[in-house]
Amino acid sequence: MSNTQRRTDVILIGAGVMSATLGVFLQELAPELRIRVFEKLANAGEESSNEWNNAGTGHSALCELNYTPEKPDGTIDIDKAIKINEQFQLSRQFWSFLVSRDLIQNPQNFIRTIPHMSLVQGEDNVEFLKKRFNTLSNHPMFRGMEFSDDPEKLTEWLPLVMEGRTFDEPIAATKIDSGTDVNFGALTRMLFDYLKSRGVEINYRHSVEDILRTSDGLWEVRVRDLHTGQVQSHTAPFVFIGGGGGSLPLLQKTGIPESKHIGGFPVSGLFMVCNNSEVVAKHHAKVYGKAKVGAPPMSVPHLDTRYINNEKTLLFGPFAGFSPKFLKTGSNLDLIASVKPNNLLTMLAAGAKEMSLTKYLIQQLVLSDDERLDELREFIPNARSEDWDVVTAGQRVQVIKDTEDGVKGTLQFGTEVVTAADGSIAALLGASPGASTAVHVMLEVLERCFPQRMNEWEPKIKGMIPSYGISLVDNPKLYEEIQEQTTATLGLDQVGAVPLPLTAR
Ligand SMILES: Cc1cc2nc3c(=O)[nH]c(=O)nc-3n(C[C@H](O)[C@H](O)[C@H](O)COP(=O)(O)OP(=O)(O)OC[C@H]3O[C@@H](n4cnc5c(N)ncnc54)[C@H](O)[C@@H]3O)c2cc1C
């Protein structure tokens, strides 16, 4: 082992969209800080943030039915939908700030307008969708949403989905034109290019193997240079663990009390990708369905028009499955290695409680190509197997933890920021709503880890994100202004010039 010990101010572990976002915030707020990044792969945005590994939905609750559950009294709960929409507005403002200052260019390379639609079949589901529409469309954040159960209108909205469909049960959809498709891989690479231009040291093919506290209160990060095999030590007063699925094992190495009694449950994914440009051209929307009874929220099927490398393509999925790996490029031993004496009971309790989920994921994993095609045909009745290829998506590691009221081993579907009590280290766990809310989540990291600097930073943050600290629900006028301004800056009002579909890959 080499005995080099290098000191810096901030260490970011992982070059995904989360580290990228935090790095840019720190660079803008405190340019004097020396930032060093370690990423074990050869480039930025290669794991979950990569465009082929996630669904690229700018989550703002315009179409995702799991954000608007039905309450026992039959009314629709829209609290979560409002929260997620508000969080996405922070991302839109931050990205607009970067574009308006020319810190990143050509926003169409990472964000585009795509109608967001929800599609359901069956009397009860149509009833639910109608109630959801009635509740949401009165709210300023969801203005412009349309509902239809008229097959003619639906054919106009969704020609590919309606072609060859028999109408033996009611069908309905909602549509809102202001939805977005976000290429989080391209965004991540742009943010890292910007950081590099500002002198941030980015070390690719460097894998973090250990994190220890030094006697003088710094964090020592031990990193293996995968080119040479040498291990180097780097120290810093602040470390962010943005390792995606790889964050949990690194957090466990810190030994902080906050890292105890937490486990991870990996969920793998597959997408079907259309290789027929004529089929791709017939569809232009992100269409979310309803999760089957007993299925977890991340398994909601959707048919997505995407822009990848500036070409139009069509993806269906993701099909969830079980894999013991924490990263797509991870090891089959990841899950087992994450079980420690302090989280064993938590993991066992979750295992006992989540048998139906495990069973569901295993059933999904063993689906044959024909069975997957049957699921696709619920969206595209005339789908032909030769038009679709299967690609492996990213891994999601859902957090398992004990709840505050003492319930052991509860599976969480959201994101969790775990910080040491003194704010010197933070880790991001979980995967949903994911990259769309990176700005909101990284603001939380700043608030929890740099409380002593927030008075100084707040005016700067407000310069980047005018709604920071302000409730958009209570300020519909500000919401409208932000929508208008970010739509213009990000070029989301530019229709036409739609690139040609991606042909067979
Ligand atoms: C199938 C699927 C669909 C999704 N769909 C959406 C969607 O539609 N919309 C949305 O907003 N979000 C979506 N998400 C979630 C979103 O992709 C993630 O929340 C987001 O990309 C996480 O970013 P990250 O930076 O935390 O992790 P990542 O992008 O995974 O980056 C972590 C990085 O850390 C590196 N790393 C890990 N361990 C180490 C180590 N020991 N040393 C050095 N480097 C290390 C990894 O190589 C990786 O590059 C989806 C995710 C999946 C899997």
UniProtKB/TrEMBL annotation:
<dbReference type="GO" id="GO:0006099">
    <property type="term" value="P:tricarboxylic acid cycle"/>
</dbReference>
<dbReference type="InterPro" id="IPR036188">
    <property type="entry name" value="FAD/NAD-bd_sf"/>
</dbReference>
<protein>
    <recommendedName>
        <fullName>Probable malate:quinone oxidoreductase</fullName>
        <ecNumber>1.1.5.4</ecNumber>
    </recommendedName>
</protein>
<keyword id="KW-0560">Oxidoreductase</keyword>
<comment type="similarity">
    <text>Belongs to the MQO family.</text>
</comment>
<dbReference type="GO" id="GO:0047545">
    <property type="term" value="F:(S)-2-hydroxyglutarate dehydrogenase activity"/>
</dbReference>
<dbReference type="Pfam" id="PF06039">
    <property type="entry name" value="Mqo"/>
</dbReference>
<dbReference type="InterPro" id="IPR006231">
    <property type="entry name" value="MQO"/>
</dbReference>
<dbReference type="GO" id="GO:0008924">
    <property type="term" value="F:L-malate dehydrogenase (quinone) activity"/>
</dbReference>
<keyword id="KW-0274">FAD</keyword>
<comment type="pathway">
    <text>Carbohydrate metabolism; tricarboxylic acid cycle; oxaloacetate from (S)-malate (quinone route): step 1/1.</text>
</comment>
<keyword id="KW-0285">Flavoprotein</keyword>
<keyword id="KW-0816">Tricarboxylic acid cycle</keyword>
